[in-house]
Every structure is written in structure tokens, then in C-alpha cells.
Amino acid sequence: MKKEEILEMARSEQSDEMEQHFNDKSMLWIIVVLIVCCLVFSFTRLVQAQPVEDYLATINLAISVGSFYRCSKVKSYRYFFQGIAFGIGGVIFAVIYFCKFFGAW
Q1: How far is it, in rounded angstroms, from Cα 44 to Cα 29?
Q2: What is the pTM of this model?
Q3: CB 85 within 8 A of CB 67
Q4: Model confidence over 21-30: pLDDT tens digits?
């Protein structure tokens, strides 16, 4: 094998490891956001029983944050658009949840 071939193989393998590393790090951010959102929504659920919009908002927002993190590290538009889509969904569900909670719905 020539030196150039070995270097090319190493570069192609490194990008997969790098993407996996950032995917793992994004999971950490997803977990952190899930915990924070679940605590906020659980507290309000203790005050007054609510439908499932809070859980849907939590899941959507956590996926959105993870997608934006991946996008910033991997530079892929797929993760950017995924983050926008889930972020919009999360905000919509959160607005519905809080409107119902405060009696505006």
C-alpha cells in the first residue's frame, strides 16, 4: 500500500469516529434538556392535571437541541432542518400546554 492510500483510509475512518463522537455528545445535551423540561412540566402537573402536550413539547425540544448541536459539529443541513422542524413542533406543543394551564385555551 502506498502512503497516500493509507492516509486516505485514515482520514475516511476519522470522520466516522468524529461524527460518532459528536452524536454521543449530542445525546448528553438531549438528556440534560429532557431532565430540565420534565422537571418544569412535572411541577406544573402537580399543581393541576394536564394533557400530554407537555411530554410532546419535551421530546420535540430535546430532539431539536440535539439536532442543532450535531449540525454545529458535523456541518450537515439535515440536522439543521431536523432541529428547526422539531423546535417548531416543541414550541407549538409548549404554547398549547401553557395556554391550557393558564386557562387561555
Answers
A1: 23
A2: 0.66
A3: no
A4: 888 888 888 8
3-state secondary structure of 102: coil
* Three cell numbers, residue 1: 500500500
Of 67, 16, 58, the residue nearest 36 (C-alpha) = 58
Closest residue by Cα to residue 91 from 67, 68, 59, 66: 59
Torsion of CA 97, 101, 104, 105, to 10 degrees: 50
pLDDT tens for each residue of 34-54: 878 878 887 887 787 767 888
CA distance 68 to 54: 21
Q: What whole-number distance in Å separates Cα of residue 95 and Cα of residue 105?
A: 10
Assigned C-alpha cell, 82: 431536523
Count of positions (residues) in the chain: 105
